[in-house]
Amino acid sequence: MAQASPVLARPLVFLLVLGSTAWVGAEAGAAGLSGDRKPNVVLILTDDQDVYLGGMTPLKKTNALIAEMGVTFSNAYVPSALCCPSRASILTGKYPHNHHVVNNTLEGNCSSKSWQKIQEPYTFPVLLKSECGYQTFFAGKYLNEYGAEDAGGLGHVPPGWSFWYALEKNSKYYNYTLSVNGKARKHGANYSMDYLTDVLANMSLDFLEYKSSFEPFFMMIATPAPHSPWIAAPQYKKNFENVSAPRNNNFNIHGKDKHWLIRQAKTPMTNSSVQFLDDAFRKRWRTLLSVDDLIEKLVKKLQFQRELDNTYIFYTSDNGFHTGQFSLPIDKRQLYEFDIKVPLLVRGPGIKPNQINKISNNVLLI
Prior knowledge:
single chain; 12 strands; 11 helices; alpha/beta; disordered N terminus; 10-stranded mixed β-sheet; globular
């Protein structure tokens, strides 16, 4: 289990924009930016993507375009193995006991009126826009209860965002509603028009096409993948048919010396449970192939616009996942490495390629 680590006083993205590349560090060989030009920043946030069990394996393009061109943090952990508290930490730079988002419900402060009043005005996009003059763009899943009628509905656009394309509530791939700058836009089940990962990619490319050329920009793209319901794009539905969840040394064993809740798991798992988690593992990987396409399109667009060399690109997830560890079939929300360890890749100005940062216990409060 990860140990505690000092907390950054401000989110990492904000520090980078102020010119502090020190966190990327001497290991990354960070150098000053040319002239007085501020860097652009892109943050790709996936949903439930583990790294402990090979969650980065399907992402060939992402590994080539971000990891091999920058630094991989091999010991990155989130402060909560649950979507909404973790996302609130990313947005605020605070631990859950400070931002008070404790679960995925309105009652747990997930996109509640209290969150909107007390925490949202101090999230890092507000700082980027007001203090640093950034154009800010959000597309995808925000917080699990975003859009709830009891908390302002889809008309609520959090402060700090110049362009807002947020998913109503939790991860979906089809048949969802977006808040487009406060106006509801419904999507159906047509692949070419509605598959959410591709929609987010297209929105991102449109923003890059039509943004102001006089201001730096920050983009946060929060994909549904690889969160359930694990619906792959049609062209990827048969990929990984011979892949199974890793049978590592804690797969399907009793956690006799673990937390009391983990000790309640039935061991060994039934054959149907094992078949279900293997199927879920394959489906999760398939959804990530569309994220890989998104990354490729984004990098190509930045390169075409001659913005790539002045852009930091972060890739990470809100939490990990498990598939059979200590006989827990599928889920997250356990404070063990498989659920709190996440991918963290960064490329950008001054960061040397092909680096592995092994500093232990990087608590991910971006």
